[in-house]
Design goal:
A hairpin with a 3-residue loop joins strand 18 (290-298) and strand 19. Helices cover 20% and strands 38% of the residues. The chain is an alpha+beta fold and 336 residues long. Helix 1 (22-29) runs antiparallel to helix 2 (95-104). The termini are far apart. The protein has 7 helices and 19 strands. The strands form 3 sheets. The chain has a 10-stranded antiparallel β-sheet. Strands 5-1-7-8-9 form a 5-stranded antiparallel β-sheet, covered by helices on one side. It is found in: Nucleus. Pfam families: Rad1.
C-alpha cells in the first residue's frame, strides 16, 4: 500500500533574523505620525512608507545589513516586463502594533541590564542628540528577533527569544493600494543644503515654544542664506544659518531666493529623525515641495536613510483674491 508523502511547505516570501531591534525600532519610530504603514519586501531590505493626507510622507528603510541573516523567495517578473514592480510583495500593517512588538525585545531581562548599566558608567540614560544611538553599548542585548512573511495575505510574524523566554506575535496585514509618492522633481531643484541634523533640531526646538502654525523656510544666495521663521500665538521667532563649513556643508541655490511655508506640525513630525540622524540633505524643487533625507549611522551595519517629503501651503495670487472679492460683491448685490 503506497503512502502519499506530505507536501513540502513553500518557503516564506521573506525571513530575517536580527540580534537587536533597537535600530529597527528607532527607524520606524521616526515615521510614527500615522497608524498604518505600507510595507514593500525587496531583495535589499524592507521599505516602510507613511502617508499623512498627501501633504507629508515618510519612508524608512530596513536595509538587509541590519540583520544577521536575510533571505527572500520573491516571485520573479515576466521576462518581457522585468521592470514590473507588481510582483514585489506589499501590504499595510499597524505601525503602533509593530512598534509595541519591537519594544518587547529587551524588556524581559531589563533588571539584569539595569544592573550592568549601574556598573558601566558609559551606559547613560541621559537623552541628548545621541550620535551614538546605535553603538554597541546601546545595542548590547542578548537574544534574537525573527521576522517572516509566508505569503500574500498572511500575518507578519515576529518571534522574540531572550533570556529563555520566547514570544510570538502575528500582526494582521492588509492588502491596500499604496498611495503615490508626492511628486518631487530631482531634475529641477531650486536649492540643496546639507548640514548636521542637530542644527535643524535646535532650530525647531527654539521656534516651537511660540506656538507656531506655519513655518517659513527661505534659502537665498545672500545672507542669511537659510532662514526658518514663524509667527505663533505667543510671538514670532526666526533662526538664521550662516554660510560656513561648520553649519552648511553643502549650499547651492539655483534662483535668487526660494521661499515656502509649511504647516509647522508636519515639519515637527520629522524631529525624531533629526535626533538619531547625523546629517540631513534639504532640497526644494520649483513646485515648492520640500525633501529631507536623513543619514543615520548604524554601528556595524553601515548607513540607513529616512526620506521625508512635505507639500507647502498653496500660494494665492493677488488676481485670484481680487476675483473672489468681486464674486462676493456680486452675490451680495443679488441678495439685495
Amino acid at each position: 500500500m503506497a503512502s502519499s508523502a506530505s507536501p513540502v511547505p513553500a518557503p516564506p516570501l521573506f525571513r530575517a533574523v536580527a540580534s537587536s531591534t533597537r535600530p529597527l525600532y528607532q527607524l520606524l519610530k521616526s515615521i510614527g505620525f500615522t497608524n498604518k504603514v505600507h510595507v514593500d519586501i525587496t531583495d535589499n531590505g524592507l521599505r516602510f512608507m507613511a502617508d499623512h493626507a498627501r501633504v507629508m510622507q515618510g519612508v524608512a528603510h530596513w536595509n538587509k545589513n541590519l540583520f544577521t541573516s536575510y533571505t527572500t523567495n520573491l516571485p520573479q517578473p515576466e521576462e518581457e516586463d522585468e521592470e514590473d514592480e507588481s510582483a514585489t510583495p506589499t501590504f499595510q500593517i499597524s505601525l503602533p502594533a509593530l512598534l509595541e512588538t519591537l519594544q518587547i525585545f529587551g524588556a524581559v531581562d531589563a533588571a539584569t541590564r539595569q544592573a550592568k548599566a549601574d556598573i558601566d558608567p558609559y551606559r547613560s540614560n541621559l537623552r541628548n542628540y545621541r550620535p551614538d544611538a546605535f553603538s554597541n553599548q546601546t545595542l548590547g542585548m542578548s537574544g534574537t528577533c525573527s521576522l517572516s512573511h509566508s505569503q500574500e495575505g498572511a500575518p507578519f510574524s515576529i518571534v522574540l527569544e531572550e533570556a529563555g523566554v520566547k514570544t510570538t506575535c502575528n500582526l494582521i496585514t492588509y492588502i491596500a493600494e499604496e498611495p503615490e509618492l508626492i511628486p518631487f522633481d530631482v531634475n529641477d531643484l531650486s536649492f540643496k543644503i546639507i548640514t548636521q541634523a542637530r542644527w535643524l533640531l535646535d532650530a525647531l526646538a527654539e521656534i516651537g515654544p511660540t506656538g507656531p502654525e506655519k513655518l517659513t523656510i527661505a534659502a537665498s544666495r545672500k545672507a542669511p542664506y537659510l532662514k526658518l521663521s514663524s509667527v505663533g500665538a505667543l510671538g514670532s521667532s526666526s533662526v538664521d544659518f550662516a554660510k560656513g563649513r561648520d553649519l552648511l556643508e553643502t549650499f547651492a541655490v539655483r534662483d535668487a531666493r526660494w521661499v515656502q511655508s509649511f504647516k509647522f506640525d508636519i515639519i515637527k513630525s520629522a524631529m525624531e529623525a533629526m535626533r538619531i540622524a547625523s546629517k540631513v540633505s534639504m532640497r526644494g524643487d520649483r513646485q515648492g515641495v520640500l525633501s529631507m533625507q536623513f543619514m543615520v549611522e548604524v554601528e556595524g551595519a553601515g548607513l540607513s536613510f529616512l526620506d521625508f517629503r512635505f507639500v507647502p501651503y498653496a500660494e494665492r495670487d493677488d488676481d485670484e483674491e481680487e476675483e473672489e472679492e468681486d464674486d462676493g460683491d456680486e452675490r451680495e448685490g443679488e441678495e439685495l
